[in-house]
Amino acid sequence: MSTWSAPTATAPISATVTVPGSKSQTNRALVLSALAATHGGVSTISGALRSRDTDLMIGALQTLGLRIDGPADKLRVVGDISPSAAARVDCGLAGTVLRFVPPLAALGPVTVTFDGDEQARSRPIAPLLDALRGLGVDIDGDGLPFTVRGAGSVAGGAVQIDASASSQFVSGLLLTGPSFSDGLTVQHRGSPLPSAPHIAMTVAMLRQAGVAVDDTTADRWQVRPGIVAAQHWHIEPDLSNAVPFIAAAVVSAGAVRITGWPEDSIQPADAILSILAQLHSVVKQTDSYLEVRGPQTYPGFDVNLRDVGELTPSVAVLAALATPGSVSRLSGIAHLRGHETDRLAALTTEINRLGGDCRETPDGLEITATPLRPGTWQSYADHRMAAAGAIVGLRVAGVEVEDIETTAKTLPNFPRMWSEMLGGA
User: Fold this and answer.
1) Active-site residue among 118, 291, 310, 400?
2) How far apart are CA 175 and CA 104, in angstroms?
């Protein structure tokens, strides 16, 4: 597989970057728009991300019988859940498709088969399938490929689930819950939930669509049955995808502005700002952008990333590039062993391959900063691993990132955007 020569910053970076819409918000808006369409509603989505993950979601909904029109980031969703016989949904490597679409398929009248990339076959899904079985849905299989035998409706009711491997299990159930005849009550039983802000995003968007959700009891969510109202959804910029560009300011002692940064975000913006404070960065926020000025040096840090595990690859390489000898500890991320790849093992391997000092702990990583050397950084078909390699390359000349194209999963044109950012250095 080809490699990409990661550019090195020869001076402090000075750039303004515009990142496209949030993948998480786009795919939730698509699912809610599909449910609104089943009652004749017409929803529109502006600022939608167009990437492999969102195109897979669009393809999945089209397989279920919905019609999604519109150019680029402006979408219109109409139609009904009426898949043809022998319908097959391609999940690719998209966790949101894998976990959000099966409950939708259960509302249709036919059997739908789900499959995806080879790497997706090891991603956790059994707890969701078992929960759907507990709600009366007929499912064959405990992992990809599996089939959902739709009966035209789902009674709903109460279900318990261990969602400690992925908060998407809860979100996938909640999104379709209002279309179950009796609504839905989900009770999480197990280790502390990861990525809780993503469940909060789901709840907020359900309420925006007129759905009554009771989340007053910890680890329990009750969704009332009812019609999901058609909406005009405005998608925020993807703050997770902004983090590698922010990291570029930190490691180059430069300044990067992210345009369109929301003042009041549905995404975990506060967690990102908290990490930047530990890195001695100067942050300026206005109603139209976020500016980050990196320090000359920064020490090691301790951070719990349970709520924002998707940031771990970028944060891990920031730790590896800290003041030599300083120690950083990243915790709360044991669940990342079940993501696109085992991200903890992958980060340990790649940082150490370049001469770093990274070791796994039961729920995270301990990284001692040491000068890194040139070499090849493997991506493991993981978009966030690929972006992390690009960050390392800013400080270490001669880093080659394998399969940089995998960044198209959530951020098309990443290499071009990265090069344009360095154009101001």
Assistant:
1) 310
2) 9
Helix-strand-coil split of the chain, %, nearest 5: 40, 25, 40
pLDDT digits (tens, 9 = 90+) for 7-26: 999 999 999 999 999 999 99
pTM of the model: 0.93
Extract the tokens encoding 209.
């669509």
Distances (CA, A) of 22 to 29, 95, 390: 10, 15, 21
Active site residue 310: yes
Of 324, 331, 332, 330, nearest to 368 by C-alpha is 324
Write out the two tokens for 21.
């819409």
DSSP state of 145: S
Q: What pLDDT score does 1 carry?
A: 67
Q: Which helix (H) or strand (E) holds 378?
A: none
One-letter amino acid identity for 122? S
Strands 357-361 and 364-368: antiparallel
* Burial profile 318-344: b = 16 or more Cβ within 10 angstroms, e = fewer: bbbbbeeebebebbbbbbbebbbbbbb
